[in-house]
Specification:
Outer Surface Protein A, domain 3, four-stranded antiparallel sheet, 2 domains, alpha+beta
Length: 177
């Protein structure tokens, strides 16, 4: 039995959950998300949504906890939203928002123009702090990972793009003779 799957998903006030067979639509003050699930069914009662597997087969039981977590992420996303912060380290490394794109100067011979995905908001503070926010946890995390991949932090000086709070294991480098 799935410990996560057994827990009901609480639906806060101001959030509307519509279940239409396998498709679930969640509307809230921050936006709307829709997703179709397989292997699980949903039941809504008294401000709670419960998730049950279609059968007790191994695949349906493995999708039980996943379905509950994805639904919970949808509810939290439309009510509170998700955010990831990235930090840019390096001399001359900076970012700036220009319309619907973010321009990164990361030590290459050219600036990198990163288009903002739909449903994701990117803000830049002090040219070195990038905040990625949105209603979809998956889209926010994927966008932050793509930005980090533009120039991952290197272990000698720590230059590059890293998550705020991420620890970079440092190397000593060459010893002078």
């Amino acid at each position: 039995m799935s410990r996560i799957g057994k827990m009901p998903v609480p639906v806060p006030s101001g959030v509307d959950v519509r279940i239409d067979g396998r498709a679930v639509t969640v509307k809230g003050p921050k936006g709307q998300l829709q997703r179709s699930f397989k292997g699980v069914t949903f039941a809504q009662a008294d401000g709670l949504v419960t998730v049950t597997p279609d059968s007790m087969s191994r695949t349906d039981r493995s999708l039980w906890g996943l379905g509950r977590t994805l639904l919970n992420n949808m509810v939290v996303g439309v009510s509170e939203g998700f955010a990831r912060e990235l930090e840019i380290n390096g001399v001359g490394y900076r970012a700036a928002v220009k319309g619907n794109t973010v321009e990164f100067n990361l030590g290459y011979s050219h600036p990198i123009n990163f288009p903002m995905p739909e449903g994701v908001k990117i803000e830049v503070d002090k040219q070195t702090l990038v905040k990625v926010s949105g209603v979809s946890k998956e889209a926010v995390g994927q966008t932050a990972a793509k930005i980090r991949a533009l120039r991952p932090p290197e272990p000698y000086k720590g230059k590059g793009v890293k998550y705020v709070g991420e620890y970079i294991r440092r190397k000593v480098g060459k010893a002078a003779k």
